[in-house]
Amino acid sequence: MDGNSMLFIEEPNLAFGYGQKTIDPRDGLILFGPSTRGKITHASIGVIGTEEGRQRLIRWLQRIQRPIFGTDDKIARPFYPGLESAFSFELSFESIVQINVEQTELDTYLRYTDSHQRVHNLVNVFVDKLIRYKREEEEPALVWFVVIPDKIYTYGRPKSAIPKSEDNIKIGIKNKYSRTAPSLFPEFAELQEAYKYEINFHSQLKAKLLKDGIVTQIVRESTIAYRDFQIDGKPIRDLEKFESAIAWSISTSLYYKTGGLPWKLGEIREGVCYVGLVYKKYEKEEKNACCAAQMFLDSGDGLVFRGNVGPWYNPDTKEFHLSEESAYQLLDKALKTFLEKNGKHPDEIFIHAKTYFDKDEWTGFEAAAKNKSKVIGVRIRNENTFKLYREFTYPVPRGMVCVIDGRNAYLWSKGFVHRIQTVFGLETPNLVPPIKIGPTLPL
What we know:
The chain is of the alpha/beta class. Helices cover 30% and strands 22% of the residues.
C-alpha cells in the first residue's frame, strides 16, 4: 500500500433530547432521551400471531418496561433502562389490538414443497387479516408486531427447502414460462401470483402491505422467548447475554415507526443534503425496474421520492442506470422539496449510488441542479479485495480510511469501536465500502 495515505475518521456525534450530543446511541438515550423527546409519548400497537406467539410478545413488552441488565460484558452491551426511561414513551396494555392466526393453517402451508407457494401463502395468512382489520375496524394501530414461529423464519428465506416427508404437499407450477404466461383459468392464475414475489417472508410481507400503509415489526418467537425453546434442557439459542441488546434494538425500532426520531446526526453542514438512489427490479421483466431516492436533510428528516419505472437494468453489466430525463425529474423533485422546507436550494447535494453514473444520468442531474446547487456524485459499494491487519488483539478501528487519490478511497465501516472496547462481530472486517468521489463517470 506504498504511496497511499491512511487516516482515521472519528465517530460522529449524534444529537438527542435537549440538543445534547454523544457518539453512542444508548448513552444518549439513557442520559438525554430521544431527539424528539416529548413529541411521541404513547402509541397504540397491534399484535398478530398464534395464541402462544401473541402472549410471548406481550410478556416481553411487559418485561422491557423494567431495566434489563447485561452480563459481565457491560461496556459492549450496556444495560437497558426500560422503555419509558429511555424514550419517555409508554404503551397501554389495555388497548393492545390482537389478531389471531391459527397454528394449523401455518402448519399446512409449511408443508408446501414449492418455496414460492409456501412463502406466498404464509405471508397472505398475515397480510389478509391485517388489511381486513384496517379496512373494517375503527380502533387503529400505529405499528403491528408480527410474531412468527421459528419454522417460518427457517423456511421463509431464499433457497430454503423443507425436509422430505410423506406429508409434504406438492402444489405449484414447474414450467418457468407457465409461471408468467397469461391464463384464463382463475385457479391457475392464483398459483401464478406466487411467482411475482421473491422467496423472502420478511420482504414479501412488507411489499404486500405497502400500498395500505400498514407499518409492521416482525419478531421471531425464539428471539423474545428463547427459554421456551429447548433441546435436552438447553435453549436452542443462547441469547441471555444479548437480552439488553434485543430490547434496545426492538424498542428503538418501535419508537421510530410510531413517528419518533431517536437521534439525528449532530453535525451536518448547513445547506447540504444527501440523496441515495435505490432500485427494485421487477422479477418477471428482464430490464424494467423502479427507481426511488431517499433524501436526508440537516434536520435529520428523511424523505422518499418514487422515480419512474423504466428499462434501468442492464442484464449484461448487472447495473442500474436512469435515462437523462428520469435523472432530471428525480433530482428536480428533490431540489423542489428542499426549497419548500428551507426557503432556498441546498448549496451542495450529494448523490449516492452503488455504480458509476453514466453520461446520460450525469447530464440529467447537472441540468436539474444548474444555477441552483453544486452536485457531487459518490459511488459506494462493498469490496472484498483485501483486509487490513494490525498487531493487536482487535482489528483496525472502525473509521479507518485508505486514500488512493483525489477521487478514490477505502473506508472500513466495521472494526474496533473505542466506546465499547470491542467489535460488532468476531471476524476481521473487510473494507466496507470503497468510495468514489466526484461525477463518477467511467475513467
